[in-house]
Amino acid sequence: MDGWTDGWIGEEEEIVAGVGQLDASAASEKLLLRVGLPRAFPTVDTPRGIDSWVHLKNLKQGARYEARVCWAATAPSDFWLSVHSTSGRNEDGSSELYLKISAIAAYYTTNATLMKTPEPVLVDIILDEFLLGALPRSLLNVGFFIVLMASVAWYLGIQIVKWIDAIATKESKTKVT
């Protein structure tokens, strides 16, 4: 979502099936939206199922973002994501986009009711800003943990080598005498 858009949403186009909004200026725990997305089996008229919309607000100009959809493996589904922009910027220079999520049911069952009308799939929609254009903000804690563990392993490695070297040196001195 770094500058490209799939389409434009003007005032003449009505947004339907909105499921919520994510505000990029909010605290990081507010950048997750848990909703039940409607889905359908693909048809000739709707090959990508049912469309749902999420309003992405207060996006920083020039920043990169990642939108993720997470769902349980027990609810087989396929999703298509596309980003649509509004016709301008806010007074503070931030922008607003709309994330279109198309969902289809991707299973077969002998239950006729589920084959006729699939149940909504519970999803987490996550908006994640990239730090320095490379690292998703949600992975910052993981990055710190990896650096900490690598530092501890490096320090312990040096201490273990010194310890083994001391043992080997004592062994060689006792054999010589």
From TrEMBL:
It comes from the Eukaryota. GO terms for molecular function: mannosyltransferase activity. GO terms for biological process: GPI anchor biosynthetic process. The chain crosses the membrane at residues 139-157. The keyword Membrane applies. Keywords: Membrane, Transmembrane, Transmembrane helix. It holds the Pfam family Pga1. GO terms for cellular component: endoplasmic reticulum membrane; mannosyltransferase complex. The keyword Transmembrane helix applies. This is Uncharacterized protein. The lineage of its organism: Eukaryota, Fungi, Dikarya, Ascomycota, Pezizomycotina.
